[in-house]
TrEMBL record:
It comes from the Eukaryota. This is S-adenosyl-L-methionine-dependent methyltransferase. It comes from Podospora australis. The keyword Flavoprotein does not apply. Residues 45-56, 69-106 have a biased composition (Polar residues).
Length: 459
């Protein structure tokens, strides 16, 4: 059994790099006004989605006059200290990226029978969106099959900021900023542009699923761990939903926001190194969007099993990024297919299994490493605006924006580090891929795999 180590330092974040994170804006400049109005109606789905065992994981949104957590600001509290593993600092206003999940938003001046009818239609759309995504029966909008040249988003360029602290310093490579701690372990940038894209991914998944988690964790989990927390947005929303719980997010990069609920903490660490936490400690462990980062999934699962309390749950939400054509019209030479084949090759050369979450692989690994009651659900994430359902159409627009905005960030590390390409060769490849993503005729989608399993209660 590996023993915990205490050799990983966690110095204070320099004041020069503290930032308030921003809520990712919808791609307003790429959505027609009518569709944008639809987005405002759907960006915080209220309808709970029951998981396979009938568990309802969403709570009713609070009334406008209900009590909220009391937040305060402490300039001396924004440190990463392994003695309490906390980064605290909160405010009741101007919370930046943080906004309470599922809080009702009001548009207009009061209710009416027409409003009720609109709400009923919206809930029907949300139900239909989840059913179509999970059953693989997404209805095509015949008016939206073709080029989406009118749905373009601005091309971004990355900025950079240097840090004095050696552990929390960044490295710069091919115009992008990467983590310094355990350099090279994660092959994708962590700069501000990438952080905004990560937050948009969170918004898209919540829009599609209508909830933050699927495992039946009950009403009052006390210790929650978020692996690869990134910007911390999932951990922050879980902390708001479960006010009595302590939520810990760990990541290689110290990019989490300064303003967080008092029960949310962050720690800079490498999840593939021995864990510092007590055994039989966590009620729920969560990971998402880590399939292109984790090298040894069986070892990660054994560690999760060891550190969960008996009866606790481990959940993974992972996208298999190789695109699938719903009408089987995407040949291997399609630019998007070629792009992801090269990403697969580059990551493979770096020791990462691109197909880890495909074909039930992660679910089988969970069973092989001691988990019981393993469940897997698969939802289709459309790429583009080809679905007829307006929720799925918006999800598809978000997902395509996420992929096209991140097309360089995704490719640079795997292709330059893993395949020996020059940055110039990468840019030449990306030109055709950007164009191909805008073509709706292939009806492209990517599967979202939601897998969760339980530590045996008598373990």
């Amino acid at each position: 059994m590996e023993q915990p180590r205490n050799d990983r330092a966690t110095p204070e974040i320099p004041a020069s790099r503290k930032r308030k994170a921003e809520t990712p804006p919808p791609p307003d400049d790429s959505i027609p006004s009518a569709q944008l109005a639809s987005l405002k109606e759907h960006h915080t789905p209220q309808q709970a989605l029951s998981s396979a065992n009938g568990h309802n994981s969403l709570v009713e949104p609070p009334s406008p006059d209900s009590g909220r957590p009391s937040y305060s600001t402490d300039d001396n509290s924004s440190t990463f200290d392994r003695s309490d593993m906390s980064q605290a600092g909160t405010s009741s206003t101007s919370l930046g990226r943080y906004s309470p999940p599922y809080q009702q938003q009001h548009y207009g001046h009061g209710g009416s029978a027409l409003d009720d009818a609109d709400e009923d239609r919206d809930e029907a759309e949300e139900h239909a969106a989840v059913e179509q995504a999970e059953e693989g029966s997404i209805v095509v909008d015949s008016d939206d099959v073709g080029s989406d040249a009118g749905y373009e988003t601005d091309t971004h360029t990355s900025g950079s900021t240097s840090l004095a602290d050696s552990v929390r310093d960044y490295i710069y490579e091919n115009g992008r900023r990467y983590h310094k701690f355990r350099e090279g372990r994660y092959n994708f940038p962590n700069d501000d542009i990438e952080q905004q894209r990560e937050d948009m991914k969170h918004t898209m998944v919540k829009m599609l699923c209508g909830q933050l988690y699927f495992a039946p964790i009950g009403k009052s989990p006390q210790q929650i761990l978020d692996i690869g927390t990134g910007t911390g947005i999932w951990a922050i929303e879980m902390g708001d939903e479960f006010e009595s719980a302590t939520v810990l997010g760990i990541d290689l990069s110290p990019i989490q926001p300064e303003w967080v609920p008092p029960n949310v903490r962050f720690m800079v660490d490498d999840v593939e190194s021995p864990w510092l936490h007590n055994r039989n400690f966590f009620d729920y462990i969560h990971s998402r969007h880590t399939v292109m980062a984790i090298k040894d999934w069986p070892k990660l699962m054994r560690r999760a099993l060891e550190h969960l309390r008996p009866g606790g749950w481990f959940e993974m939400q992972e996208v298999h990024h190789f695109p699938i054509s719903a009408n089987k019209s995407m040949p291997p030479e399609h630019p998007v297919a070629q792009y992801w084949s090269l990403i697969n090759q580059g990551l493979g050369n770096l020791g990462i299994n691109f197909y880890a979450c495909a074909n039930g692989n992660l679910a089988n690994m969970m069973r092989e490493n001691g988990f019981v009651n393993v469940t897997e659900r698969v939802l289709q994430i459309p790429i583009g605006t080809w679905p007829k359902n307006k929720v799925l159409k918006t999800v598809g627009l978000y997902w395509r924006t996420i992929l096209t905005d991140g097309i360089q960030a995704i490719a640079l590390g795997p292709l330059t580090r893993g395949c020996g390409w020059s940055p110039q060769d990468v840019e030449i490849l990306l030109m055709e891929v950007r164009k191909a993503y805008k073509d709706n005729s292939s009806l492209m989608y990517m599967p979202l795999h939601i897998i969760y399993g339980q530590k045996p209660p008598n373990y």
